[in-house]
Amino acid sequence: MWPTPIPPGPNEESVWDYPRPPRLERVPERLRVVLDGRTIAETGAGYRVLETSHPPTYYFPPGDVVAGVLGSARRAGICEWKGRAVLYDVAAGGFRAEGAAWAYPAPTPDFTAIAGYIAFYAGPMEACFVGDARVTPQPGGFYGGWITPAIVGPFKGGPGTMGW
């Protein structure tokens, strides 16, 4: 059963207007990730992936992630659209989050622009920002979307949404 989309207001986007297969686009806003009181990633050259029912997933150029915060890459799952992913543990100060970031080292042709770019799960981080907006993690912990006040759902990821 498909949910009833929330109509977007002025300056809002509905995840139900996003395409399937997903689309990759540049992000005009500054992106930032904070862990243990430190900014561990910040960029003005990010990308986002937009997919029906999902809040955007944001990708950082690897050079805009602080050296030493990512652990060794380990093999992860396969996305039907982007290809095989790798996971990273993320550590800063006294905090370590296992499997809290990922990348596509050799993505499919439509996503080559984000080859090696890093995405972060917002939940394990202290804070993540799109521009000045602090994000909320996509429900459920499986997907890595970032919800800002400009995005309306309902969002895939919570209990009962896996069949969407």
What is the CATH-assigned architecture? Beta Complex
Helix content: under 10%
Distinct helical segment count: 0
CATH class: Mainly Beta
β content, as a range?
35-45%
Would you tell me the structural class of the helices and strands? mainly beta
Describe the protein.
By secondary structure, the chain is mostly beta strands. It has a single domain, classed as Domain of unknown function (DUF427) (Metal Binding Protein, Guanine Nucleotide Exchange Factor, Chain A, Beta Complex). The protein is 0% helix and 41% strand. It has strands spanning 13-14, 23-26, 31-35, 38-43, 47-51, 54-59, 74-79, 83-92, 95-103, 119-120, 127-130, 133-134, 136-137, 146-147, 151-152. The strands form 5 sheets. Strands 4-3-11-12 form a 4-stranded antiparallel sheet, with no helix packed on it. It has a 4-stranded antiparallel sheet with strand order 7-8-9-10, with no helix packed on it. Strands 2-5-6 form a 3-stranded antiparallel sheet, with no helix packed on it. The protein is globular, with a radius of gyration of 15 Å. The protein starts with 12 loop residues before the first strand and ends in a 12-residue tail after the last strand. The model has no long low-confidence stretch (mean pLDDT 96).
